[in-house]
Structures are given as structure tokens and as C-alpha cells.
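Quick illustration, no need to memorize.
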Amino acid sequence: MRNRNIFFASPVKIFSRFLILITVYLISGCNSSKTEGVEDAILTMAPDVPPPITRDHPSKVIVHLFTKEVTGRLADSVQYPFWTFNGTVPGPMIRVRVGDLVEVHLSNDPADKMFHSIDFHGVVGPGGGAASSQTPPGHTSVFSFTALHPGLFLYHCATPPVSLHIANGMYGLFLVQPEKPLPQVEHEYYIMHSEFYTAGDFGSHGLQKFDLEKALAEDPTYVVFNGSIGAVNGERALQAGVGDHIRLYIGDAGPNLTCSFHMIGEVFDEVYPEANTSLIERNVQTTLIPAGGATIVELHALVPGTFTFVDHSMFRMDDKGASGQLVVTGQADTAIYSGKTADEIYLGK
């Protein structure tokens, strides 16, 4: 007969129950914090980041999102029927503060053909919100949650088949700012790594349809940053000046591949692995971001030039499009980097 008296339980079980009670108490304490005021979340499109939150208390934050199926540019002369949040791939970046009560209004455009929903990886609740947000065209779903855990989290559509909705572009980043915010920097940027599987080969012109066989084989036609080839290159490159401190919020929407994020000619001064704001790794050359995950990296721009960031699984850069640029302007420092100082004839030994 099972003994129901805790005093006859083993010391290990007693300690385990104690830890569970403490955890429940801490989470409940955070959840029961009274909010002050109501505000609409500031949403920004990649590569822009919402401004830091300066208030020192939880608030009620209302997030307005809509889903829309649109045809847009995947590469030069290549169009794709994207499924989107707020009309862009990736969807908008959302910033709240830990302890905030977040009320989500998800609207599905009347012209859409599919149900859509949203799963926040930073939400404690069934489906991360997906169970409460399955929304047919022409309807709006509303649900709320408390942001319990600080960090940077992916969100994505979670209507079956979930993989198809992600593969077609339905994802974004959700930043839960800790009570003590990260140090202020000159620039913050939003970057999303993802894949697209098209019936045509890389660069094939015209409207391209989704290819299920390539997706099942995990063989993407395109691997891109911020939704398309060249989205963060040339005139759309990230900008900074010599001496600037830069913070990058980077997600990997997948749906299949891990990203080996590297910036050529730079070393990351700080990396928050898995976007854990309480843990820092320093002097990192390349950081892994799993599909469905995110990370935060920081660097200082010390010399001018164009710095290319890539998925260091190199054929993805050379043959599938996984690259972007950071352009740094300002005064050169030849003590840090001299540039070429000679070009001499060499005839061999």
C-alpha cells in the first residue's frame, strides 16, 4: 500500500518536492506582480529592433499581428508565394519586459486561404499560444500570457502542418528584456536565418512553388538572412561607425538547418548562447544556432570596411545565398589592421 505521509518519504523525494515548491512559488510570484499601465508593443521589421524598454515595472502590453499570404521577391527575378506575419519575412520583432502581461491580437486576412496561428517559444502554456490562436481567414483571436522568462525567443505559425507554415515564411523574434537590461549599445540589429525549398533550381526565374520532396530531404534551394537573397547586402547592409558597440539578435527559423553564424574579419566579444541573458561567452569566432533557436552576439567595430556575415556551412554561402554585410565607416587604425603593405614577385625556391 502506498504510504501517503511525506514524513516517511526518502530524503531525496523530500528535497525534490521542496525544490518543486520553491520553483512554483518563484514563478507564481512573478506571475502575480501587478502591472501598471497599458501600452501597444512597438513592432519593427528586420533589420530594425524595437527600442529598449526603460520602465522599471511590468505593464500590460498589447501586440497586434496579422497573417497575410503574399507573393514577393526571393531573389532577383525570382518570386515566391510567402505566408507572412504583418506582410514581411521575417515577421516583426517584438520587445517586452519580463513580468509583462502580453495580450496578443492575431488577425487572419480575409483574402487568405489557410488557418494560421502563433507559437511563442517564450510562452508557458499549451502550444506556446497555438492552442488559443487557431484563426480562420477573416477572424481575430485574442489570448494573453505573462512573460516569465527573459531571453530571445522564436515565434512561428503552429497550424498543421507546422513545417509547411514555417517553410513558407511565418516566423519572427520575440525579445523578453530582463529586469536589468543589457548595457546600452550604439546599434541593435535583427537577423533571421531560414531556408526555402523551391521547385526550380537556385536562380530559376519566375514564380516558384514549394517543393515538398526537397524539404523532406532537407536540401534547400535557398538559405538566406532576412527572407531573401541580398536582404542585408549592398544598400541594405547593416551600418556602423568605427568605435561603435553593436548587438545582433539572431534567430534560426529552420525549418531544418542549424546555422553556424560567423562574421568574416571579426570576433564576437560577447555571445549569449541560446539567447540566455544570464550567461556570456567571450571571444567567440563562430556560434551555433539551432533550428527553432536564437542567440545574441556583440562586437565592437574597430576598423572600417565591409564585413560579411555567413552561415559557415560554406556551400550555403557560395551556392544558396547565406550571407549579409556590416559596413563600418571611419578612420583606419593600422596598428590593428595594416591592409596590404607590399606586393612582391615570388619565383619559388
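The longest strand covers residues 60-75.
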